C-alpha cells in the first residue's frame, strides 16, 4: 500500500512538474476568492494566491467593478513574496492586454477609445483602457483650447500617432479625428454650394484683411474689398463677431476647399451710373478718404472714389506733399477730368475749381501796374517777390537799377524786405511774372531825351572840365564830350577854354537807351552848320570864298 502510495505520489509530483507552471512576467487567469480591506484576494491556481488593490479594477474616476467568483486576468510579477503569496497586478495585466489591442489598432490605422484624465507639461494624459497615452496640447482641437475642463473623463475616440512598447510611449491625437469629421462635413457643405448663390452665415472672426464667415460647418473668407463698393479701412467698420449676414459665394476652390464670399455683390454697382452722373468738367463736392505721396482719394459717393493727382492739387504749391494741402475727411470741391469705366477710375482736379491765379493777376495787373511784396528768395539772376494769389514775380538783375550794375544793386536787398516794383510782363502759359524795380517812377532817361534824335542840336551845360574832355548835363542826364569832339579846329580842341556853367550847343551823334548815354559833339555841329550854309548860300564853284558864305549865313542868322 505504502509502495503504491509512494508511486502515486511520485506520479502526481511528476505530473505537477510536467504541468506548465505559470511563468513570472506573464498574464494568467485567476478567480476572486474574497474582497477585503480594499483588496481582492485572487487564486491564480497552482496553489498560489495574490492580492490586488481594488482601484486597479477601476477606470480613472470610476468605482471598481469586482465581485467574489469573478474570473480576471492578472499579471504575475513574482511566484512568491516574503509572505508566501504570489505578487500579482491587475493594472499590468490590463496594460499588456491594452498594448496588444492598441498595437493592432495602430497597425490597422483604426481609432481607439479613451478618456483624458490628467494634465502634464505640454499636454494631457489619456487612459486607453489600461495603457496611458500622451495627448500633446496642439492635438486637442483644431483651434487652441483655453479650457480643457469639459473634455476631462469623457469617453471619446483618439487616433494613435506613434507608439513604442519598449519605452512604454504612446502619443495620440483628438484633433486628427475632428479634422476628419470636419473634412467630411466641409465636403458635404461645399458640395451643396454653387458660385453665385446667396447664403446666410455668421461672422466668426475679423482680421485686417477681411472676415471669416461660418456657412454651417465650413468657413468662407469675405475679403475687405468685397464688403462694400466704397473704401473700407477696417472690416470692423461694417461687421461684428457673431453677426448673421447674407453673402454671395464668389468662388469655390475644389482642391483647397477655399470659399470666397462677397457682400457688395448683393447691392447695385454705383459704377454703372458714374458716367451719366459725373460728366467731364463738372464740379462736385466730395470727401477726402485717403492721402498718399502721389495724391488724395476723394469719395464722390459711397463706392465711387476718384484720385486728385498731386499735379492737379494746387496752382501754386508745387512739389508739396498732398497732406499739406488737404486733410482726411475734409469736404472739397473737385472737377471731373477723366473717367475710365473699365479700370473704375475717376481723375479729379482740385485746382480746376479755382481760377488760375496767373490769369487773375494778368487781368487785374496790366503791364505798368505798381505792386508791393516781400522778397521771398534771392538768386544769382534776380529777386523773387511774393504777390497776391500766392504767386511770385521775378525782378531780373538788369531791372534793379538804372545806374548800378545788377550784381551790385542786388546787394541792397534782403529776404523779407518789402519792396515796390512795376509789372513789366505776365506770361500765363509759363506761369511767369516779370517785374522791374528800376522802372518805378518812370524812365528818367526816356523822359529826358524824349524829343531828342540823332542829328538834333541841343544846348547843354558844362559841369566839369577834365584833361580828356568836358562833362556836360542835359535835363539831368550826364554826358561826356571827348577832346577830339570839342572843335573842328584842332587848335580849339582844348577843354580849358570852357568853364563850368557854360552853355554850349552840341549835335547829338547817338542815343543809346541801353547804356542810357547820349553821344554829343561840338565838332559835328560845326561841320553840319558849314554844310548847311554852303547848301543855302551858294556852292564853292561860284567863286565865293567859304568866309563870304559863312559871313552871309551868320548875317542872316542875326
UniProtKB/TrEMBL annotation:
Gene giving rise to this polypeptide: rpsA
Family per record: Belongs to the bacterial ribosomal protein bS1 family.
Gene Ontology CC terms, in alphabetical order: cytosolic small ribosomal subunit
Keyword Heme appears in the UniProt entry: no
Function: Binds mRNA; thus facilitating recognition of the initiation point. It is needed to translate mRNA with a short Shine-Dalgarno (SD) purine-rich sequence.
Coiled coil region boundaries: none
Database matches in InterPro entries: NA-bd_OB-fold, Ribos_protein_bS1-like, Ribosomal_bS1, Ribosomal_protein_S1-like, S1_domain
PROSITE patterns referenced in this protein's UniProt entry, alphabetically: S1
A GO BP annotation: translation
The keyword Ribosomal protein is annotated on this UniProt entry: yes
This protein's UniProt keywords: Repeat, Ribonucleoprotein, Ribosomal protein, RNA-binding
The protein's name: 30S ribosomal protein S1
Domain S1 motif: 25-91, 109-175, 196-264, 281-351, 368-438, 455-523
GO molecular function list: mRNA binding; structural constituent of ribosome
Pfam families hit by this protein: S1 (PF00575)
Amino acid at each position: 500500500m505504502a509502495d503504491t502510495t509512494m508511486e502515486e505520489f511520485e506520479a502526481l509530483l511528476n505530473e505537477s512538474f510536467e504541468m506548465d507552471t505559470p511563468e513570472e512576467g506573464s498574464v494568467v487567469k485567476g478567480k476572486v476568492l474574497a474582497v477585503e480591506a480594499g483588496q481582492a484576494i485572487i487564486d491564480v491556481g497552482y496553489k498560489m494566491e495574490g492580492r490586488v488593490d481594488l482601484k486597479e479594477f477601476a477606470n480613472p474616476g470610476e468605482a471598481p467593478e469586482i465581485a467574489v467568483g469573478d474570473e480576471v486576468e492578472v499579471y504575475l510579477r513574482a511566484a512568491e513574496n516574503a509572505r508566501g503569496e504570489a505578487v500579482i497586478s491587475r493594472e499590468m495585466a490590463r496594460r499588456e492586454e491594452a498594448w496588444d489591442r492598441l498595437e493592432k489598432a495602430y497597425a490597422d490605422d483604426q481609432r481607439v477609445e479613451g478618456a483624458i484624465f490628467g494634465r502634464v507639461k505640454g499636454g494631457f494624459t489619456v487612459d486607453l483602457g489600461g495603457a496611458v497615452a500622451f495627448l500633446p496640447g496642439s492635438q486637442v482641437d483644431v483651434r487652441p483650447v483655453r479650457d480643457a475642463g469639459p473634455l476631462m473623463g469623457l469617453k471619446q475616440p483618439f487616433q494613435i500617432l506613434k507608439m513604442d512598447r519598449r519605452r512604454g510611449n504612446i502619443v495620440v491625437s483628438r484633433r486628427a479625428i475632428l479634422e476628419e469629421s470636419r473634412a467630411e462635413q466641409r465636403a458635404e457643405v461645399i458640395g451643396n454650394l454653387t458660385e453665385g448663390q446667396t447664403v446666410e452665415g455668421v461672422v466668426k472672426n475679423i482680421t485686417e484683411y477681411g472676415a471669416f464667415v461660418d456657412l454651417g460647418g465650413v468657413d468662407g473668407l469675405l475679403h475687405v474689398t468685397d464688403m462694400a463698393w466704397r473704401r473700407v479701412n477696417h472690416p470692423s467698420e461694417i461687421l461684428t463677431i457673431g453677426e448673421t449676414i447674407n453673402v454671395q459665394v464668389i468662388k469655390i476652390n475644389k482642391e483647397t476647399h477655399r470659399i470666397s464670399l462677397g457682400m457688395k455683390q448683393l447691392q447695385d454697382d454705383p459704377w454703372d451710373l458714374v458716367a451719366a452722373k459725373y460728366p467731364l468738367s463738372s464740379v462736385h463736392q466730395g470727401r477726402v478718404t485717403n492721402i498718399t505721396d502721389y495724391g488724395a482719394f476723394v469719395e464722390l459717393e459711397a463706392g465711387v472714389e476718384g484720385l486728385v493727382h498731386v499735379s492737379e492739387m494746387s496752382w501754386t504749391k508745387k512739389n508739396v506733399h498732398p497732406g499739406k494741402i488737404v486733410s482726411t475727411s475734409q469736404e472739397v470741391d473737385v472737377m471731373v477730368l477723366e473717367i475710365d469705366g473699365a479700370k473704375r477710375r475717376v481723375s479729379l482736379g482740385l485746382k480746376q475749381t479755382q481760377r488760375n491765379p496767373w490769369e487773375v493777376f494778368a487781368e487785374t495787373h496790366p503791364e505798368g501796374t505798381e505792386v508791393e511784396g516781400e522778397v521771398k528768395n534771392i538768386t544769382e539772376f534776380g529777386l523773387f517777390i511774393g504777390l497776391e494769389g500766392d504767386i511770385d514775380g521775378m525782378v531780373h538783375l538788369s531791372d534793379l537799377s538804372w545806374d548800378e550794375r545788377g550784381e551790385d544793386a542786388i546787394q541792397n536787398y534782403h529776404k523779407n524786405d518789402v519792396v515796390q516794383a512795376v509789372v513789366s510782363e505776365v506770361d500765363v502759359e509759363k506761369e511767369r511774372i516779370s517785374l522791374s524795380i528800376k522802372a518805378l517812377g518812370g524812365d528818367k532817361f526816356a523822359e529826358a531825351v524824349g524829343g531828342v534824335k540823332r542829328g538834333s542840336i541841343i544846348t547843354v551845360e558844362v559841369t566839369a572840365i577834365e584833361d580828356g574832355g568836358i562833362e556836360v548835363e542835359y535835363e539831368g542826364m550826364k554826358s561826356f564830350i571827348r577832346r577830339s569832339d570839342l572843335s573842328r579846329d584842332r587848335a580849339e580842341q582844348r577843354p580849358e577854354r570852357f568853364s563850368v556853367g557854360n552853355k554850349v550847343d552840341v549835335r547829338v551823334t547817338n542815343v543809346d537807351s541801353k547804356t542810357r548815354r547820349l553821344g554829343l559833339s561840338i565838332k559835328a555841329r560845326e561841320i553840319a552848320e558849314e554844310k548847311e550854309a554852303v547848301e543855302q548860300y551858294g556852292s564853292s564853284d561860284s567863286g565865293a570864298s567859304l568866309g563870304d558864305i559863312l559871313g552871309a549865313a551868320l548875317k542872316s542868322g542875326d
